[in-house]
Design a protein that fits this description.
The protein has 492 residues and is an alpha/beta fold. The protein has a single domain, classed as 3-Layer(aba) Sandwich (Alkaline Phosphatase, subunit A), CATH 3.40.720. The protein is built from 13 helices and 13 strands. Strands 1, 4, 5, 6, 7, 8, 11, 12 and 13 form a nine-stranded mixed beta sheet that branches. Strands 2-3 form a two-stranded antiparallel sheet. Strand 2 and strand 3 form a beta hairpin. Helix 10 runs parallel beside helix 11. 50% of the residues are buried.
């Protein structure tokens, strides 16, 4: 009996060691990529309850391009201009006919700082640093720093009453996960989409990250956490090899690599005989097969050489100033064309919109880098007939204060501002040339009912045919605020 128990124990330990080896080897193959490759069919290390991959209701969108601008662009100098700032420039909030926003009960609710226990409050009004004018048939006002996007306003739905709570740059993660830095981390919005729906192209990752992570501490913005690493975003590079750790070695022939995969398949199938109901083994086999196919499909999807000179010029990919953002936007379009569910697109480096000083100089420079590429993306989707299939979201982590930031003698910048800011949506299922919500006369508070960032997540899920409440994981009950509610007012 003791010998039989020992044999069973050895078999079990061998099985555990084999799986541990394969999981470690797999996760090293392309980092997060191979975790993602497990897709709907399996798990790396552990698997939660999985949905069927079927939408909960008829979807309006098939894919999402989530454009993120890091650092916090000013809502006032982009998409929510406030003439009162010019009229009362240099005065304090108390010297205007409007209620003092610093005394509003909403102020402390929508401001939770980690770096500073109590963030400084500024009240000396700083005038607008750029003009704006009504654009298109809809007459939506847009900053003069966005002449190309201004030609697209009739295809955009603006949400001017967003708010969040993190007054520090961990808000970059919060806009994607819905959770403050001091709270338990949750899966990102892209992970929820791909967890709910799975892949639409067996040869490509279902959730791709372009231009990021912008920094090591922003990886939370595309992680899946308890959903499993197969639902995390896969960072791909468009400069050089898109899969630097997934290429076949120069000294390895294709047939040799194929034999390696067959050997791993054989090892797993031996275990499959012993454990015929073990889904992990079958999933592992499919994962390696997909990793093999990605070596061809990913480089093809990101091959800019297949695009015409006219298309590349439309995105600004032919110009030094706009090339980086232009190539990323064009790559995003190529990926969703091929069935990628969610593309998280960083068009700007980490924190570059963070204008505590020299806002005019900084915002003018950053706007010039992204205006044409993003407008080119919208125009290209439209002319290719993709606006009925692709949802575009354009966002940042928070806005900027209507008052000048006077810290350290500052005179020409704005501080972080979670109390009210603007995002916009375009494409599948979204109204066109439409403005929803508002901030107060000074551009300070999102007027009730404002929208916390998870309302934006819920809107994306809804358009993709998903109800976030039906994606709950047993033992992982989420808060009501985690679910948010779809912003129905902007939907067709």
């Amino acid at each position: 009996m003791t010998q039989m128990h020992s044999q069973r124990s050895n078999i079990k330990q061998t099985e555990v060691r084999r799986r541990t080896f394969l999981a470690d080897f797999g996760m090293g193959f392309t980092g997060l990529a191979l975790g993602s490759l497990l897709q709907q069919d399996g798990v790396a290390r552990a698997a939660p309850h999985r949905p069927t991959g079927e939408p909960h209701h008829p979807p309006r969108a098939k894919s999402v391009i989530w454009i993120y601008l890091s650092g916090g662009y000013s809502q006032l100098e982009t998409f929510d201009p406030k003439p009162a700032l010019n009229k009362y420039a240099g005065k304090t909030f108390l010297e205007t006919p409007f209620p003092d926003p610093l005394e509003s009960p909403l102020h402390d609710i929508r401001s939770r700082s980690v770096i500073q226990k109590v963030r400084e409050k500024y009240s000396k009004i700083y005038p607008l640093q750029i003009g704006s004018k009504p654009r298109g048939r809809s007459g939506v006002e847009v900053s003069d720093w966005f002449p190309h996007l201004a030609t697209c306003v009739d295809d955009i739905a603006f949400v001017r009453n967003m708010w969040t709570t993190d007054n520090d740059h961990a808000a970059e993660n919060q806009i994607h996960t819905g959770r403050h830095k001091l709270d338990e981390t949750q899966p990102s919005v892209g992970s929820w989409v791909t967890y709910g729906l799975g892949t639409a192209n067996a040869n490509l990752p279902q959730f791709v990250v372009l231009g990021g992570p912008t920094r090591a501490d922003t990886r939370e913005s595309f992680q899946a956490y308890y959903l499993g690493p197969q639902y995390a975003g896969v960072p791909l590079s468009i400069d050089g090899s898109p899969l630097p750790y997934g290429r076949r070695g120069a000294d390895v022939l294709p047939d040799e690599q194929r034999n390696e995969f067959e050997l791993i398949r054989g090892l797993n199938e031996l275990s499959g005989v012993e454990y015929p109901r073990d889904e992990k083994i079958a999933a592992r086999i499919r994962a390696y097969e997909l990793a093999y196919r990605m070596q061809m499909s990913v480089p093809e999807a990101l091959d800019m050489g297949q695009e015409t000179a006219e298309t590349q010029a439309l995105y600004g990919a032919d110009n030094a100033q706009t090339r980086v953002a232009g190539r990323r936007c064009l790559s995003a379009r190529r990926l969703v064309e091929r069935g990628v569910r969610f593309v998280q697109l960083y068009v700007s480096p980490y924190g570059v919109w963070d204008s505590h000083k020299a806002l005019k100089k900084n915002h003018a420079a950053q706007s010039a880098k992204v205006d044409k590429p993003v407008a080119g993306l919208l125009k290209d989707l439209k002319r290719r007939g993709l606006t009925d299939d692709v949802l575009v979201v354009f966002c940042t982590e928070f806005g900027r204060t209507p008052a000048v930031e006077e810290r350290a003698g500052g005179t020409d910048g704005r501080d972080h501002h979670p109390h009210g800011f603007t995002v916009w949506l375009a494409g599948a299922g979204v109204k066109r040339g439409f403005v929803h919500g508002a901030t107060d006369e000074l551009g300070f508070h999102a007027i009730e009912p404002g929208h916390y960032v998870t309302d934006l997540h819920a809107t994306v899920l809804h358009l993709m045919g998903l109800d976030g409440r039906r994606l709950e994981i047993p033992g992982r009950k989420r808060l009501e605020i985690d679910h948010g509610r779809p912003i129905m007012e902007v939907l067709t």
